[in-house]
Amino acid sequence: MATREDVLLLVGDVGGTKTDLAIFAMDREFRKPVARAHFYNADYADLKGIVTVFLQQVALAVDVACFDVAGPVLGGRVRLTNLPWEVDARALQEALGFPDVWVVNDLAAMAQAIPFLEPADLWVLNAGAPVAGGAIAVIAPGTGLGEAFLVWDGAAYRHVASEGGHADFAPPTPEYIDLLRYMSSRLDHVSYELVCSGRGIAHLYDYFRDQRPAQESPEFATALAASTDPTPLIVESALGRGHASPLAVAALDAFVTILGAEAGNLALKALSTGGVFIGGGIPPRILPVLADGRFMSAFLRKGRFSSLLHKIPVQVITNPDVALLGGAYYARARWLESQGRQLT
């Protein structure tokens, strides 16, 4: 139980589908929040409504707040990429009466947590040989595809936000050229997010179904048509649970290959000799598929730089609270800076 001597941090992880809120005590173990709750965004008009309900439920006096959001944050404001909300730090501060409110990109927040993760929070795909102080890259497929990285400033790691998930999709091998053609005929812009995320898995399934219509069973087609979100059904089928579907297997295989290729791209762009970390909601659910060699094969397929990528550690983040933890560490650092102190 928190006492009033504690400085209380409200942290929110705001995604395209759901929002997780938690309250952390400044001088306590961040892995054990004082209070937390889960909300579906479709039930609320805006983030303020969710926060108001949560604070009424917990009846705790919060000192500062930090919200990590799925979208590009400019000047403390963001219009979420996959949700018709605008989040404004100053407006929230005034509406909620907090002394300080910070808004940060969700992948930047996730990156903040990485230096504090423990072995139990990670699944190793490639041990590599990490370089002390080397840049660290983060890529996270969930509703969308997030990317960010950390750089060492001589004293600590600093996060750098990115919208790399919206960069042009490039087929990793010739067999994916037809996929690009297919997507281009239906969309104005084909980004990595549109083929390497929850939404992307559904697009990949559609592509393989249209290429091989005879392979879709009537039972699976009916189940997909009745679902508001086909992606979980596709993933479960590909993992051997639920309706059997060779098209679902092909879609998940393509997803893993594309994710591996783009993770390798990010490793090269950031020269992430400190490691690549795979976050998001999907990877922990498909660990056996990620670990069977397809991901790393695509990650390493970089020609002359394959040997360099062999040395880069690659790990899946299995701790589901990593974004909340990152937001808490970010808020703690900002609050300490405002008090003329440093994070220790």
Give the CA-based shape: globular
CATH class of the largest domain: Alpha Beta
Order of helices and strands: EEEHEEEHEHEEEEHHHHHEHHHEH
Strand order of the largest sheet: 8-13-12-9-10-11
Give the structural class.
alpha/beta
Structure description:
By secondary structure, this protein is an alpha/beta fold. Helices cover 37% and strands 21% of the residues. It has a 6-stranded mixed sheet with strand order 8-13-12-9-10-11, with helices on both faces. Helix 5 packs across helix 8 and helix 7 packs across helix 8. The longest helix is centred in the C-terminal third of the chain and has 25 residues, at 246-270. It starts with 7 loop residues before the first strand and ends in a 6-residue tail after the last helix.
Write the layout of secondary structure elements.
Elements: E1 8-14, E2 18-25, E3 35-40, H1 47-58, E4 64-69, E5 77-79, E6 86-88, H2 89-96, E7 100-105, H3 106-113, E8 122-126, E9 136-141, E10 145-152, E11 157-162, H4 177-184, H5 198-211, H6 218-226, H7 230-238, H8 246-270, E12 275-278, H9 287-290, H10 294-300, H11 306-310, E13 314-317, H12 322-338
Parallel strand pairs: 1-4, 4-7, 9-12, 12-13
Antiparallel strand pairs: 1-2, 2-3, 5-6, 8-13, 9-10, 10-11
